[in-house]
Design brief:
Shape: globular
Largest sheet: none
Number of strands: 0
Helix content: over 70%
Number of domains: 2
Distance between the termini: 52 Å
Number of helices: 11
Order of helices and strands: HHHHHHHHHHH
Structural class: mainly alpha
Strand content: under 5%
Length: about 190
């Protein structure tokens, strides 16, 4: 790998850390280990081609372009946490992954949403976290972190609440966005 490619890969990984909390290679490898998958099966569950998954993992691509795929990643992270905690067996996890593959990506505010269905497949529904992640996925699907931060700076003086909303949901960690959501939903 030449210096330009290495620099591009490092920048992509930094962007992934901003958008997803860590480089996607590390995130996907953890999901593979926790859920007993291989890379090809993870690609199927996420709804990505194997080459696309490989490019995201290696840093050749920075961003997941499809918000539904981002939601599937989040659902798999929740599922992996349940498996690590011993609250879900391997068989239940396999059934849940199939449900995630078929259904994740719907609007969490609708009656037929993944959040509603997830409680029936062994994954605890956390409506606040799911709403926050959907908002994050939507913002991050239309703009990258740099654009969102720039827009927030432009709005800061005239519309500070909107600027904060962009910063918190567009570039901050999910935990911070959940806290913001809970403060404002009273």
């Amino acid at each position: 790998m030449d210096a330009a490619q290495q620099e591009s890969t490092e920048k992509a990984r930094e962007q992934q850390t901003t958008w997803y909390g860590e480089p996607l290679g590390a995130l996907f490898r953890r999901l593979i280990a926790d859920l007993g998958l291989n890379q090809a099966r993870l690609a199927v569950v996420l709804g990505l081609s194997a080459p696309m998954l490989s490019q995201l993992m290696s840093g050749q691509r920075a961003k997941i372009g499809n918000p539904a795929v981002v939601q599937r990643v989040r659902a798999l992270q929740d599922l992996a946490a349940e498996v690590r905690a011993g609250r879900i067996s391997a068989a239940e996890a396999t059934a849940s992954m199939e449900e995630i593959r078929r259904t994740a990506g719907g609007n969490v505010l609708s009656p037929n949403s993944t959040a509603t269905r997830s409680s029936s497949i062994g994954v605890p529904a956390n409506p606040t976290k799911r709403v926050v992640r959907e908002i994050q996925a939507l913002l991050r699907s239309v703009s990258d972190a740099t654009e969102i931060q720039s827009a927030a700076r432009l709005l800061a003086d005239s519309h500070p609440e909107l600027a904060e909303l962009l910063r918190v949901y567009g570039v901050a960690r999910t935990r911070e966005a959940v806290e913001h959501y809970e403060r404002h939903q009273g």
